[in-house]
Amino acid sequence: MRVLVFAGTHLRHLHFFQKLFELDLDFSAIVMQREDSLPPAPEWATEGDRALFDRHFRERALVENKYFGHANNGDLFGTMPTLNVSPETLNSPTTVSFLREQNPDAVVVFGSDLIKGQLLDELPEFSINLHLGLSPWYRGAATLFWPFYFLEPNYSGATFHKITSSPDAGAILHQSVPPLDSGDGIHDVAAKTVTTATEEFTVLLDQFSGGKRCELTNQTAQGKLFSRYDFKPAHLRMIYERFDNDIVREFLEGKLSVRQPKLITAV
Q1: Residue 217 is assigned to a structural domain of this protein
Q2: How confident is the model at residue 100 (pLDDT cuts 50, 70, 90)?
């Protein structure tokens, strides 16, 4: 089975594909360079909010290093046909040509920008995106942050769905949520979301390569599509000043949301 992956370059993306590449399949890759994992705080934010912003992303880097190690692009993709792209060249004719050359049976996406236009049209039938968020409740950007802001950390999870022209709106193959433990902070839950999704999808892809039928479920429930412009540094006050990054413990003690997601699972 020939599998083409569209990969980002953050540690979470590299961890996912490192595990996937352990399967005995014929892989090729399109790797999109992502933004710095330690972004600068907006100049217009208050001094206190800039401090929270810096803390948030600094702690994310520390937690992801703990969970995912220090994989790098060269080691991971160096043994397979690979095209390196930027966000500007992701949907270019060069990328379309590379896709045609590889002629994959399946495509798996995690970490690249939205696939559009002719590139989208050229994808094979089995083309699945890993969205870090539970669709349709949390779609778009920062969808592992918003469940904490809205005090329902149990809605932190991952959705594997068919790739469509609309963000995170395709029919769902599988969803997963990580175990929540007292003492988990927001970044621990995000990292555990990735590791849980990685373990489960590796099993699924192995089964599908062996001939298991792929069943998809259309999204019907209502949710929200978050833009990257929705997130403001001031939102971090809820996480760190009001709850001292201890929202999971409050939830497990029954002090917060009682709503539970109804997951679509294929494992």
Answers
A1: yes
A2: very high
Domain tally for the chain?
1
Answer whether residue 241 is part of any domain.
yes
* pTM: predicted TM-score of the whole model, two decimal places: 0.94
Continuous H helices in 129-261? 146-149, 186-209, 236-237, 247-252
Pair of tokens at residue 174: 């599988």
The residue segments making up the domain with residue 182 are 2-252
Contacts of residue 175, defined as CB under 8 A and 6 or more positions apart, other chains included, come to 134, 135, 157, 158, 159, 160, 261, 263, 264, 265
Over 80: is that where the pLDDT of 168 sits? no
Which H helix or E strand runs over 225? strand 224-226
Q: E strands along 75-151, which residues?
A: 82-85, 106-110, 126-131, 138-140
> For 237-248, how does the pLDDT look when each residue is reduced to its tens digit (9 = 90+)?
999 999 999 999
Three-class SS state of 137: coil
Question: What pLDDT sits at residue 252?
Answer: 96
Q: To 10 degrees, the CA torsion angle through 31, 37, 40, 45?
A: 110
Give CA–CA dist 125/123, Å, rounded. 7
Least confident of 44-53, 66-75, 158-167, 232-241: 66-75
- Residue in this structure with the two tokens 């800039």, named with its chain if needed: 50
